[in-house]
Amino acid sequence: MSKLSGIDIKFLTGVGPKRAELLNKQLGIYTYEDLLRYYPFRYVDRSRIYRITELQPDMPYVQLKGRFVTFNTQGEGAKRRLTALFSDGTATIDVVWFNRIKHIQESYRTGEEYVIFGKPSLFNGYYNIVHPEVERFSPDNEPHGLRGVYNLTETLRNKSITSRTIQQLVQNLLDKVGYIPETLPASVVEGYRLMPLREALVNIHFPQSLDLLQKAKERLKFEELFLVQLNILRYAKGRNSKIRGFHFSRIGDYFNNFYHNVLPFPLTDAQKRVLREIRADMGSGRQMNRLLQGDVGSGKTIVAMMSALMAADNGYQTCIMAPTEILATQHYESLSRMGAQVGLRVELLTGSTRKSRRDEIHAGLLDGSVHILIGTHAVIEDTVEFARLGLVVIDEQHRFGVAQRAKLWNKNTTAPHVLVMTATPIPRTLAMTVYGDLDVSVIDQLPPGRKPILTILKYENNRASVNKLIYEQLLLGRQVYIVYPLIQENEKLDWKNLEEGYQYVCDTFRDFRVSFVHGKMKPADKDYQMQLFAANETQILVATTVIEVGVNVPNASVMVIENAERFGLSQLHQLRGRVGRGADQSFCILMSKPQITKETRRRLEIMTETTDGFRIAEADMQLRGPGDIEGTMQSGIAFNLKIANLASDGQILNLARNAATAILDRDPDLTAPEHRVLIEQLHLHFDKTVNWSRIS
Ligand code: ADP
Ligand code: MG
User: Fold this and answer.
1) Contact assessment for residue 233 and residue 172, using Cβ atoms and an 8 Å cutoff
2) Predicted TM-score of the model (pTM)
3) 526 forms bridges with which residues in the sheet?
4) pLDDT tens-digit profile of 586-639?
5) Pick among 3.40.50.10540, 3.40.50.1820, 2.40.50.140, 3.60.20.10: CATH of 48-143
6) Is residue 297 within 6 Å of ligand 1 at its C-beta?
7) Are the beta carbons of 644 and 445 closer than 8 angstroms?
8) Is there an atom of ligand 1 within 6 Å of 294 CB?
9) For 499, how many CA atoms within 13 A lie in the half-sphere containing its CB?
10) Can 253-443 and 454-624 be said to share one CATH topology?
11) At the topology level of CATH, where does 454-624 sit?
């Protein structure tokens, strides 16, 4: 009995073709392996039998023991239902079924003793339970211990497949297969004191005690995270050993001249550390694949610039890609100014670059006279060719698809070094999983002298005080952003909000000029409006989230976010990063409607408590789960964690990563006999998914 993943579920006692189809379609269970790995999502204590008089509102699932007194059907057609009066001697409750009425009337009898299991709810002062699990009571199937509750669908319940059914099937399977081969090498199981696989599977489905359940969970979480890490790290290692990179051996005149004569401020320690990491990578002879995380305003641009100088010192060109034209232009303005001072030619390529200019730039790239090219990815991707492209910097990575990264790869025979910069902090656990093959650098320090932004939560009835604050700042010569949500599902309503908001702002702040920017405008109009604001020709910018990424107007000191309750934490954080770029006190005002859920209030409060992007990202992940965190959806990885949770299992993840690293250090190709099982597991779990990690 070797490959449980090779045995069709329909061969299991109690399944058969019809149920097999249901299990396939409803739960994705096709094989023995799938069933064993279909873990309960929670557990209830079935040793406890409640009395009806003990029931409380909001109780979770409970067990009652008693007799059905009467059965009554009511209603017609779809509204038809069966209500039974159930008594345990202390009181009575209603038990209600909406389907399979005939079947139930035939199976359950009045007078016999049953144990029913379900969630009580209170209706008109009287308890009822809808669709409980029902079992005949007999002294030898005395309920005991913890019992798993499985995620099931309505369709399955209608076909009377309950948690009890799944349990029975798992039991049948365990009886039948007896031996289940271990999936982890003995050294790992012993070294990390993990519960052996069979014991863990038995306990996850049929916990013998809370303690054993805990150990079973740990083992299965470890296994899952270990395999993910092993898979990612194996590619990273493979690439490191096989793919050669340009060897940037020198720090030369460009860099030194810049460092001593041009650099307008001392670097922060974090910037220095990151530059050392980048230098080590590019000097190693291997291709750099580095993710640079740094909060908004932490100074990533200068790191990109200085990395480009290292490339230039070694005779290579750099390409910097930005997600929007505005951002590309801003980068160009600052980098070309700095570049000119050390004799570097920097060029900008965007959708609005004229044909003649474009031709000049193309020629300059081919003859090597252009050292740094900055542009939007749309422009750079297709037609551009370089003489000696040595470094690619991608700004604001999460806007960048995997496929786009892949195209870069094709621009050279030798892969250029890649530096990916993102201002969306990603919790470490997630980074290790999503970007596990990239080396990660973090700028965890803001340049000195910044006043932390003051974040204030306000409700509609505080509008007057908010307007007052805005007015004061405008009178001080500052500028103001006002952002409205524009979210697809509710587009019409949002649109109305936005236009009314714009009118309101114009009417309220008559002495000042207002720019208006939204996603449906022509890029040229948008740019024009943004430029008016950047030049302080307009003092207020009313916008949808198009301003989210990267614009830099240091004179702006107020960010008002309307309907803040509708934004995610990371997005609020990005928006807030637009202010606080100068030396003066800046404000972020979150306007919310008063009726919000506790969770939403918590989210907004976190914003008022911290400006640390990593804390915010952690909180976002805790509140919403990793699947929703920006960057993971677009990254193209199937996130198939069944039991591990990246928000709460960071410790296990660390252990698992260490274990995977240790194994790959000793046996990079997993050729040792005791590692054969790992190769099998990797095939089993990862062959179907896209191998995104090769593309970078
Ligand atoms: P981001 O990481 O968001 O891209 P930028 O690179 O745009 O941040 O930097 C934000 C601002 O901080 C810029 O005006 C930049 O010149 C300035 N800056 C960067 N590094 C330092 C530093 N070490 N000291 C002072 N100011 C700095
Ligand atoms: Mg930036």
Assistant:
1) no
2) 0.66
3) none
4) 999 999 998 888 888 988 999 999 888 878 888 887 776 655 444 443 333 434
5) 2.40.50.140
6) yes
7) no
8) yes
9) 6
10) yes
11) Rossmann fold (3.40.50)
